[in-house]
Design brief:
Elements (H helix, E strand, L loop, with lengths): L3 H9 L2 E8 L6 H14 L4 E7 L11 H4 L3 E2 L5 E2 L2 H9 L8 E3 H13 L10 H16 L5 E6 L9 H14 L4 E8 L2 E2 L4 E2 L2 H12 L6 E6 L5 H11 L6 E5 L7 H7 L2 H9 L8 H11 L5 E8 L9 H13 L3 E8 L5 H5 L3 E4 L8 H14 L3 E4 L1 H13 L6 E2 L9 E5 L14 E9 L4 H6 L3 E8 L1 E3 L4 H6 L3 E5 L6 E5 L8 E4 L14 H16 L1
Parallel strand pairs: 1-6, 1-7, 2-5, 2-6, 7-10, 10-11, 12-13, 12-14, 14-15, 15-23, 16-17
Antiparallel strand pairs: 3-4, 8-9, 17-20, 18-19, 18-21, 21-22, 22-23
């Protein structure tokens, strides 16, 4: 028998929620996990999140953005999966290097330990060594949390992910089954020829999970349209799961309403029982944002996103979500126009009220981005340049000031007018992952500048991901073109912000940072809010 102290200790320990997926990838595990996290945070718990992915990559820095979407950067400088961006937007907290665990990083650590003699000649195996290290990563990531949510990437049954499934099974034994909640998200397809939903793929996926030793506490059925209760009951019957634990989450217009759908599904009672707290979640901020997002406003602002990966919105998801939040809180509809940087023409640019040039690498489409920056200069179109977007703005201004060959060393290593050049210490690292200037860095804004007025302060911190920077040797030429440095690193050595004064342009700002990483649905970033407001003013002034 446990004494009172032992029982209290057990009650106070961190709770863990593991989210897996079945049938197919892309079924919505990340959004489901983040929505559950948002609900628990709204109940007053300190919630953290983690992604475990079976990729053999060490980090996401060199992954193709067309295939994998945006490379998200944590505040402590780790290049990660875009799901961590979802976690931060839903829970309004900062992920870290502990929030991402890849197979490649686990293998790298094990091999380095083995080569250093850390295993004392023992055979290194997936079980127990890989699985134990995964458990250690989960434990480290959950420190000081009330509830820690872990999403397992891929699909249950994927060969490369089996060690993670075994790790979370063993973890449940280690911390006590009552401290772990297993959620499995499955897809229930609609077969158009027979006009019915088919539950067999979900049943088979759950059978696989049971075969690996995990019986889920909650099954989330993802469907294109609301499913009749009989479908969930059928899945429960043939999978050995309680009827009330099989929930349906149909597709909806906005991911930010998933939390409300999760609540409607009946999961709250299950979560309350798991955490031992029946307090109602305070979702008022989300409710207000949902109303703002859904309302039909009298005005619509057209913003052009000048980018080279126009076929995959996930590549710029933080930028697009930041714009959506900014529009919602400005009480306007957003008409986002995708402009292919390789096919920029004046007609495309003339149809928008504001322009955003996001970050990126490589010279493909760069002249189109420079053309967009020039158009904004010539026609007083509000412009926001992010990372590379700031650099092309500097190149455009330098060329206007007479430096006709102005360029970046990234695009022309032999340029004699290197307005943008390789940062000190970055030589030889151009094709190496994890070696850029990454993560949070402070900046000091010029008092009285438009940028400082937008932020409402002069000392700020933003996240970065870059290897090239503005060459201050060309400061005079940039100023002759009207461009002023409105923010630098605290030591004054690195250019962090540039702008045109209000007297010269209504809104022309570039930043070396990625402010989109810090924008939240309920707290839009001031730079994006400022751009949307300026675009509205420009529209009215036409």
């Amino acid at each position: 028998m446990k004494n009172k102290d032992e029982k209290q200790k057990e009650k106070n320990k961190c709770k863990y929620i593991f989210v897996t997926g079945g049938v197919l990838s892309g079924v919505g595990k990340g959004i489901t996990a983040a929505s559950i996290g948002a609900i628990l945070k709204a109940k007053g718990f300190k919630v953290t999140m983690q992604k475990c992915d079976p990729y053999l990559n060490v980090d996401a820095g060199l992954l193709n953005p067309v295939e994998h979407g945006e490379c998200y950067v944590t505040h402590d400088g780790v290049e990660t999966d875009l799901d961590l961006g979802h976690y931060e937007r839903f829970l309004d907290f900062e992920t870290s290097r502990y929030s991402i665990t890849l197979s490649g990083s686990i293998f790298k650590e094990l091999i380095e330990k083995e080569r250093a003699g850390g295993f004392h000649g023992k055979t290194v195996q997936l079980v127990p060594h890989f699985t134990e290290l995964v458990q250690e990563k989960i434990m480290n990531a959950s420190k000081n949390s009330d509830i820690h949510i872990v999403e397992i990437g891929g699909t249950v049954g994927d060969y490369e992910g089996l060690s993670f499934i075994e790790a979370i099974r063993l973890f449940g034994n280690k911390v006590g089954r009552r401290n772990c909640l297993y959620v499995n998200v499955v897809y229930v397809p609609w077969i158009n020829t027979s006009k019915e939903l088919k539950s067999k793929p979900a049943q088979n996926a759950l059978k696989d999970l049971r075969g690996f030793g995990i019986i889920p506490d909650v099954v989330v059925c993802r469907t294109e349209k609301p499913a009749p209760r009989e479908i969930c009951e059928k899945i429960a019957k043939f999978s050995g799961i309680a009827d009330e634990a099989v929930l349906n989450l149909p597709d909806i217009d906005s991911v930010y309403d998933v939390s409300f759908n999760v609540l409607k599904s009946g999961v709250l009672e299950i979560l309350n029982d798991f955490v031992g707290d029946d307090k109602e979640p305070d979702m008022s901020d989300w409710e207000e944002f949902s109303k703002k997002r859904a309302q039909k406003n009298a005005r619509t602002v057209k913003v052009g996103l000048v980018a080279k990966y126009v076929g995959n919105e996930d590549t710029y998801i933080c930028v697009t979500e930041a714009l959506k939040a900014a529009a919602a809180w400005n009480d306007v509809n957003l008409d986002l126009r995708w402009i292919n940087a390789e096919k920029v023409d004046e007609k495309m640019l003339s149809e928008v009220d504001g322009l955003v040039v996001p970050g990126g690498f490589g010279n493909r489409g760069v002249e189109g981005k420079i053309a967009a920056a020039n158009y904004a200069l010539d026609h007083d179109v509000p412009y926001l340049g992010l990372c590379l977007g700031m650099q092309v703005a500097c190149i455009a201004s330098a060329r206007r000031a007479g430096l006709t060959q102005a360029n970046s060393e990234e695009f022309d290593k032999e340029t004699k007018e290197n307005v943008i050049y390789l940062m000190d210490g970055q030589e030889g690292k151009e094709s190496t992952g994890g070696s850029m200037r990454l993560g949070d860095f402070p900046a000091k804004l010029v008092k009285g500048s438009k940028t400082a007025k937008i932020y409402g302060k002069t000392n700020i911190v933003e996240r970065h991901r870059h290897r090239y920077e503005v060459n201050v040797a060309y400061k005079q030429q940039l100023e002759e073109a009207g461009l002023v440095i409105s923010g630098t690193s605290p030591d004054g050595e690195l250019t962090e912000f540039v702008e045109l004064p209000q007297s010269a342009h209504p809104f022309y700002i570039g930043t070396q940072a990625h402010p989109e990483f810090k924008s939240r649905p309920t707290k839009p970033h001031p730079l994006f809010a400022g751009l949307v407001k300026a675009a509205l003013d420009h529209q009215q002034a036409r």
